[in-house]
Amino acid sequence: MSPAPPFSWRRWSPAPLVGASLGLHAGGLAALAAQPGLWPWLAGGLLANHALLTAAGMAPRNGWLGANLRRLPPAGAARRQIALTFDDGPDPAVTPAVLDLLERHGARASFFVIGERAARHPALLREMRRRGHSIENHTHTHPRHFAALGPFGMRREVLSAQAAIGAALGEAPRLFRAPMGLRSPLLDPVLAGAGLGLVSWSRRGLDGASGDAGRVAARLAAPRAGEILLLHDGNARRDAAGRPVVLAVLPGLLGAVAAAGLSAVPLPETLVPSPGPAVPAAAAGGRGSPASGAGASS
């Protein structure tokens, strides 16, 4: 059964905040044409509006700029499922060890990979999928200024990653996570056009910034059904002993998941209305298939 996320495979329509912003701009221009003296008030209103949109883009877990999966749907939570997600890979020095730990604990995850790295390590990407994990889109080059790119720059980053991952796996991702979770109102229509749904997280360990394994573990303690947890297999910080923090934290986290009676599964499987694996994008014929994702960048 193919997944049916509420936020993907749709015609784009603006979120209420974005729609109101578009209305403000259109109405303001009409008012200015009729009464040019209103420009100071219009300028102030537009500045306030852009400040609000910027604040929304810098808050990764909000849905003000478009649909954003922060927790699993109720059906996934009811099945006692949890989603472990890993960003910035694949890394041949770290990812294989993460895969081994997950397999040892009977857990499967979703990896939001960087397109450039996927293109350099296609065999590792295929091994990740062979072990039952899902491979998702985390842009092609992970630009830190991604949220400041225009629509064409965002589209290039998204579709180039779709193409690289599709070339390695024969199918393109259906889910996307923005670098550092930061975005602008321009991202939602880009993702809708690519057949991708936006995913953030319930909690993150901040292991991409902190080398303190204890603090990272504390941020992810006591996992609960329906949560989306975020760690990094790429750009992984090292602890004082030089070990990637994710490898120090993951065994304890996986033990806590098992002790809580939770099942760690890839995100696409949490989105199906009843238990069962998701149909690959190529078989489902959705807009995330290679013909619409990878091929769209040519």
Key attributes of the depicted protein:
alpha/beta; TIM Barrel; two-stranded parallel sheet; 9% strand; globular
How is this structure best described in words?
- The protein has 298 residues and is an alpha/beta fold.
- The protein has 12 helices and 8 strands.
- The strands form 2 sheets. Strands 1, 2, 3, 6, 7 and 8 form a 6-stranded parallel β-sheet that branches. Strands 4-5 form a two-stranded parallel sheet.
- Helix 4 runs parallel beside helix 10 and helix 6 crosses helix 7.
- The relative contact order is 0.19.
Profile the largest sheet.
6 strands, parallel
Return the average pLDDT rounded to an integer: 84
Approximate strand percentage: 5-15%
What letter string, H or E per element, gives the SSE order? HHHEHEHHEHEHEEHEHEHH
Integer-rounded radius of gyration: 20 Å
Q: First CA to last CA: what distance?
A: 30 Å
What CATH architecture of the largest domain do you see?
Answer: Alpha-Beta Barrel
| CATH class assignment of the largest domain | Alpha Beta
Please estimate the helix content: 40-55%
- The CATH topology of the largest domain: TIM Barrel
The structural class is alpha/beta
Task: Give me the secondary-structure topology.
Layout: H1 16-34, H2 39-57, H3 74-78, E1 81-87, H4 95-104, E2 110-113, H5 115-120, H6 122-130, E3 134-137, H7 151-169, E4 175-176, H8 187-194, E5 197-198, E6 203-204, H9 213-219, E7 228-232, H10 245-259, E8 263-264, H11 267-270, H12 281-284
Helix pairs in contact: 1-2, 4-10, 6-7, 7-8, 9-10
